[in-house]
Design goal:
It comes from Sharpea porci. Its EC number is 3.2.1.86. Belongs to the glycosyl hydrolase 1 family. This is 6-phospho-beta-glucosidase. Helices cover about 40% and strands about 15% of the residues. By secondary structure, the protein is of the alpha/beta class. It has one domain (about 10-460): TIM Barrel. The strands form three sheets. The protein has an eight-stranded parallel barrel, surrounded by four helices. The longest helix is centred in the middle third of the chain and has 26 residues, at about 200-225.
């Protein structure tokens, strides 16, 4: 079995990290627009509003709003078959609860999609990628509130109808499982826990609202255009038991529960035994309205999109907790202390396909590193070529040897953008260097890195080039 001639090679970005165009043409504030820059030692701050004389990386990103034609031409030069991007919710509905959309925002994405299609690049659109309208957070409590389903559906209905002949591939929420994995699920669900709040119940209820919204979006999208392919998207935390101690195998299962929880509902259409076990483990309360279970059953996704960056080792502790921060002695680390594990991608692909038996799409994979721009405008990022080459080789093995159905592969941050986790620019992922620093200074000029020409060959040969 070989990689399909229709395999979707490309790259991935998110509006809040890349687009910029802060408040341009009527855009409203999203949750990203009040999050400051930071770094690995100084976490990003989240403000209630935009403070003067404060740097918010999302306001400019790396300038796609003004450079989209130039950037798409560069993607076409590499031979992209697809480009994963997100629509910024607040560009379409500035507050989020309006009845009518912002026409200027809709027109911008018309122009972007037309430019992509001019080069025969398939848009792959994430509907909600860390860009929840700030107004919905303040007025309604974000996804705690069931009213969010209606606001989300109005947004989906608008973009599905507007772009039904331009976009085929959609994903409902980015890394939806991170709602359950964070102390404060701000990026995923627009939630900062309040003092005394029942966190478990909040997470379960917000997740349920998002899952119902996802199912309803799938149903609606297929009604508007039966050719739509609508998927989910999760962060896949590949993990290994730390030892052959049986309890460590149980620890791996429990560590993966927060991922399988969402996938089981979105792919199988119900809360499975895995989901019920996680609910009991959390100890919160969940309210399921009449008709919700039927919606979940009917609104299962067409494919699984997932991000893969690293693996972890997990072990049971004496107090009954799970430790997933151990050092794997067989793997090297990135500059940000992530395990480099190409074969883990093959393991992940097999685990997901064996469990769900629907097409998979690797929509994020990449290496964050400090790149040096040389005086002649070049960047020698051989380390990125080595990293991606080994991961693509593992991808090929999963397809060609294991017969896993994979429809595409998009590297994360195909052009340099702001890190969502740390708010840095120096943590670069792209094939294209963008002149901007951690303080927001720079010309935004674009430069092709060494990896740019390498990835072009990968696509030209449909992944059959040597990874050297």
């Amino acid at each position: 079995m070989k990689i399909s001639d229709h395999f979707l090679w490309g790259g991935a970005t998110a509006a809040n990290q890349y687009e910029g165009g802060y408040l341009a043409d009527g855009k409203g504030l999203s949750i990203a627009d009040v999050e400051t820059g930071g770094n690995i030692d100084h976490p990003r701050e989240i403000h209630e509003s935009v403070h003067p004389h404060t740097y918010y990386p999302s306001h400019e990103g790396t300038g796609f709003y003004d450079h989209y034609k130039e950037d798409i031409a560069l993607f076409a030069e590499m031979g992209f078959k697809c480009f994963r991007m997100s629509i910024n919710w607040t560009r379409i509905f500035p507050l989020g609860d309006e009845e009518k959309p912002n026409e200027a925002g809709l027109k911008f994405y018309d122009q972007v999609f037309d430019e992509l299609l001019k080069y025969h690049i398939e848009p792959v659109v994430t509907i909600s990628h860390y860009e929840t309208p700030l107004h919905l957070v303040k007025k309604y409590g974000s996804w705690r509130n069931r009213k969010m389903i209606d606001f989300y559906m109005n947004y989906c209905r608008t973009i599905f109808k507007r772009y039904k002949d331009k976009v085929k591939y959609w994903m409902t929420f980015n890394e939806i499982n991170e709602t359950m994995n964070k102390k404060n699920p701000y990026h995923q669900a627009g939630i900062l826990f309040q003092e005394g709040e029942d966190k478990a119940s909040t997470v379960l209820q917000a997740s349920h609202h998002m899952l119902v919204a996802s199912a309803k979006a799938v149903i609606l999208g297929h009604q508007i255009n039966p050719n739509f392919k609508i998927g989910c998207m999760v962060q896949y935390p590949e993990s290994y038991p730390a030892t052959c101690q049986p309890l460590d195998q149980i620890a791996k299962r429990e560590y993966m529960l927060f991922t399988h929880y969402y996938l089981d509902v979105m792919c199988r259409g119900l809360y499975t035994n895995t989901c019920l076990a996680k609910q009991e483990q959390l100890g919160g309360k969940l309210i399921i309205n009449d008709g919700d279970e039927e919606l979940l059953r009917k609104g299962t996704v067409d494919f699984i999109g997932f991000s893969y960056y690293f693996s972890s080792i997990v072990s049971y502790q004496r107090d009954g907790s799970i430790n997933a921060k151990g050092r794997n002695p067989y793997l090297e680390l990135t500059d940000w202390h992530w395990h480099i594990d190409p074969l883990g991608l093959r393991v992940a692909l097999n685990e997901l396909y064996d469990r769900y038996q629907i097409p998979l799409f690797v929509v994020e994979n990449g290496l964050g590193a400090v790149d040096q721009l040389n005086e002649d405008g070049t960047v020698d990022d051989q380390y990125r070529i080595d990293f991606l080459g080994k991961h693509i080789e593992a991808l090929k093995q999963a397809i060609e040897i294991d017969h896993v159905d994979v429809i595409g592969y998009t590297t994360w941050g195909c052009i340099d953008l702001v890190s969502a986790g740390t708010g840095e620019m120096k943590k670069r992922y792209g094939f294209i260097y963008v002149d901007k620093d951690d303080q927001g200074n720079g010309s935004l000029k674009r430069y092709r890195k060494k990896s740019f020409y390498w990835y072009k060959k990968v696509i030209e040969t449909n992944g059959q080039t040597k990874f050297e």
